[in-house]
Amino acid sequence: SSNVTSLSTGLSTTNSNVTSLSSSVSTGITSLSTGMSTFSSNVTSLSTGLSTTNSNVTSLSTGLSTTDSNVSSLSTGMSMFNSNVASLSTGVANSVQYDNPGHTSITLGGIGATTPVTLTNVAAGVKPTDAVNYGQLSSLSTATSAGITSLSTGLSTTNSNLTTLSTSTSTGISTAQSGVNSLSTGLSTTNSNVAMLSTSTSTGLSTAASGINSLSTGLSTTNSSVSSLSTSTSSGLSVAYNGINSLSSGVASLSTGLGQLASLSTSLTSVTSLSTSLKPLANALTAAAGNGATIGVTTIGGANSDGTIQTRGANGTVISNVNPATCGTVTGVDATGSGLCAKATKDGATAFGSNAQATDANTTAVGFRAVASQAGSVAIGNNAQATGDPTVAIGQNSVASGNNSVATGAGAQATGTNAVATGAGAQAAASNSVALGAGSIADQANTVSVGSPGSERRITNVAPGVDPTDAVNVSQLSAVQNQVNNVQKTAYAGIAMSMALTGTVMPSLDAGEKGVGVGIGSFQGNGALALQFKSVSQTGNSSWGAGVSTTGKTTGVTVGYGFKWK
Fold this sequence. Notes:
This is Hemagluttinin family protein. Among the domains are: 2-86 and 170-289, no CATH class; 485-563, GSPII I/J protein-like (Pantoate--beta-alanine Ligase, Chain: A,domain 2, 2-Layer Sandwich), CATH 3.30.1300.30. It is rod-shaped. The model is unreliable at 1-11, 28-37, 147-166 and 200-301 (pLDDT under 50). It contains 13 helices and 25 strands. β23 and β24 form a beta hairpin. 40% of the residues are buried. By secondary structure, it is α/β, with parallel strands linked by helices. The N and C termini lie far apart (121 Å).
C-alpha cells in the first residue's frame, strides 16, 4: 500500500500530461475537420501504430509487476506485529490473579505477599456468600467489632473480580487481534488490486487507463483526467491520432494538415516514453524498500492534486497537508510502521495507524494517535496513551501513565505506580491501587475499589475466608452476629435472674428461725422467678441460705453462709 502511495505521487506528472492531452484534443478537432478526406488512407498506419502501443503497454504491465512484489513483502512485516501483540500478555503482570488453576482463592499482592492491601467502595452484603463492608461490622459489640474491623482491613475481593479483569483483558487483546486480521485482509485486497492492474493494462490503451484508475481509487484528479482521456478517445480514431501525436510533436504539428498522418507510427513512440517515465517510479519504490526499515502502509484519504495528504496531526484538530513520503519515521532496527505519519523510531518498535507513535525500544502503538513512549509499553486504540515505564493502555482515550500500570477500557486511567484500572472510565490514581468496573475510583494506596461514592457494588460468590488476611462473606459475618446475639440473650437472662434473686423479700429472723422469700425480675424482655431460703442457728451467731432463679430456659443457683461474733 505504501508502494501504491509512492506510485500515486509519481503519476502526478502523468495527470498533467493527460490534462494537456485533453486540451490538445479540443484544439486538434478543429484542424482535423479540414483533412477528413485523407484520414481513411492512414487508418491502416494507425492500426499498425496501435499494435506497437499494445506491445509497449504490455511491457509497462511487466514493470508494474515489481510493485505487486513489493506490496506482497508487507506481509512479512505484519508477522512482526503479531509477535508484538502476543507479547501483550507480559504487560499485564500487575493484574490480580487466582492462586491456583481451580480458582478457589486469591491473594492480593500475589502468592507469598506479606503486605495486606485494602478493598474500598464495597456495598453492603446481602446474600450468604456476599462480601461485607466496614459499615456492617461497626454495629457489633466493642470486642467483636475490633475483631471484625481487622478482618475487614484484610478484605480481598479478587476471588470474583479477577475473572472480570481477565475477561476484559482477553476481550481487549481479541479486539486488537481482530483489527490486525482486518488489516491483513485489507492488504490482501491491495495485492489483488495491484494484480488486477497488471492484467487490465495488457488488454490495450483504453483498458490501461481504466487499470491505472482502479490502482489509485483515492486520486480524484487522476480519475477525472483519465476519464477525460477515455471520453476523447471514444470520439474516434482520428482524435486518438491527434492525442498521441500531441505527446511527441505538440499541437502545432496539427496545423500543417493531414499530410503528417503518415508519421503516426513514429508518434506512437510517445506511448513508449510513458512506460519509460514510469520506470523511475518503480526504481523509487525499490530504493524506498532498501532504506533499512519496513515501509509504512498509508491509506489514501483526502488527497490533494500535488500528492499531499490531509491530516489533523498527532495532537491538533486543524486539517493540514503533509507529504506521505516524508512525514512518517521508521528508523529503528526491526521496526515496523504503517499509516500516515506513523513513527517507529527505536529498535523493535511497531506503529500502526495514522499518527501512531512507538518511540522507544520494543513499544507497540496501534490506532489513530496511539502513543507508546516507554520501552516495552503497549497502546491499542484511538488516542490510547501508554506513557509509563512500561505500561499497557487498551481502549479509546485510555491512559497508563504510572510506571508498571495497566489501563483497559474506554477512558480508563491508571496514573499511580503499579496501578490497574479496568472498565470504561475506571480510575486508579494511587500507588498499588486497583479499580475494577466502569466508573470505579481507587484513590488510596494499596486498595482495591469496585465502585465509587454513591455507586458502590456488591461482591458476590465470595468463598469463606480461612487465613487472617482473607475476605469474609455475609455467611461468616452472620455466624458471628448470631454468636453475639446468643451471648446478649444469655446476658439479659442472667441480669433478669439476678434481679429476681435480689428482689426476694426475706423477713428478719431470730435465733433458730427459718424463712423463705420469692422474687420476680425482668430485663430487656426476659422474665425470671427466684426462690430463696434462709436459716439462723440456735445461738443466733451464724446463718446460711440458698436460692434458685430461672427464666424457664436458664437456671441459676446461689448458696451462702454467714457468721458473727462479739
